[in-house]
Specification:
- By secondary structure, the chain is of the alpha+beta class.
- It has 2 domains: 136 residues, Cathepsin B, Chain A, CATH 3.90.70; 90 residues, no CATH class.
- It is built from 10 helices and 6 strands, in the order H-H-H-E-E-E-E-E-H-E-H-H-H-H-H-H.
- Strands 1-6-2-3-4-5 form a 6-stranded antiparallel sheet.
- Helix 6 packs across helix 10 and helix 7 crosses helix 9.
- The termini are far apart.
Length: 257
């Protein structure tokens, strides 16, 4: 058994990489561009940022058109932005034994089938066997692992708990120190943003997983989104940070599923 592969059309490498993940032509050019437009609208409404995700150069970052599409299938992305020299291996909560590999101008897939690693590149001539060590030797690439939602939420929540104290007063002091050092949110940013993003998407829109905590989720997400709209472009506004984040972080580190 080999991996599903599509030949490159135009600048649709992201669509081809997604279909390599699905193992079939799940996404068409029309549906891909429709999803791009929906994601642009969401990004503007949530962050106040204007992007054009039909263009490849908006791929970088934790939020991109791939993550937007995959979350609708209950798949999350775990990021390794600089993979050079790193040990590349699938996380324990991998989804479909698949990862995306990207650089500044292209993206392709890696699929493990029965222990065999396949590189699935739409610019190539078909799936090619590859060793994981070779991936870690590639320069200027990043990795996006496909992972299951609930385990990823728990991982990010545990990470958040490990980088912040557990009292409101101490959380406030940490945020003040980060602000004075001009570190914005430091190590708090990624686990906080990722865990709340999962809550927003799946806790509110797909209530089956988080149903017992829906009211708490609604409160956290509403407060956090209000914060984000004001925070964009005002990253060192300490008064704004302290008005929102100590309470939000305090709620999150005590969140139980």
């Amino acid at each position: 058994m080999t991996a599903y592969w599509e030949r490159q059309q135009g600048d649709l490498c992201r669509m081809h990489a997604l279909n390599a993940f699905f193992g079939k032509p799940e996404i068409t050019p029309d549906t891909f561009y429709k999803q791009c437009d929906e994601f642009d609208k969401y990004t503007y409404e949530r962050y106040g940022l204007s992007i054009t995700s039909r263009s490849y150069n908006t791929l970088t970052g934790r939020y991109n058109i791939l993550s937007w599409i995959l979350r609708k299938y209950n798949v999350w992305l775990q990021y390794l932005p600089n993979a050079f020299g790193k040990k590349i291996e699938l996380p324990p909560h991998t989804h479909s034994n698949f990862m995306f590999v990207y650089n500044s101008g292209h993206i392709w897939g890696i699929k493990v089938i029965n222990g065999v690693v396949w590189a699935i590149d739409s610019l190539g001539s078909g799936p090619v066997r590859i060793d994981m060590k070779q991936i870690g030797q590639m320069q200027n690439i990043g990795i996006m692992y496909t992972v299951h939602l609930v385990p990823e939420f728990k991982i990010q929540l545990d990470l958040l708990r490990s980088v912040v104290p557990h009292s409101l007063a101490d959380i406030t002091q940490v945020l003040i120190k980060l602000n004075k050092s001009k570190l914005i949110l430091g190590d708090i940013e990624v686990p906080l943003d990722t865990s709340i993003d999962i809550l927003e998407w799946h806790g509110m829109q797909s209530k089956k997983i988080f149903k017992p905590r829906y009211k708490a989720i609604l409160y956290i997400v509403t407060r956090y989104n209000d914060f984000l709209k004001k925070f964009t472009g005002n990253y060192l506004d300490l008064k704004l940070v302290l008005n929102y984040l100590p309470e939000i972080i305090y709620y999150m580190i005590r969140f139980n599923m």
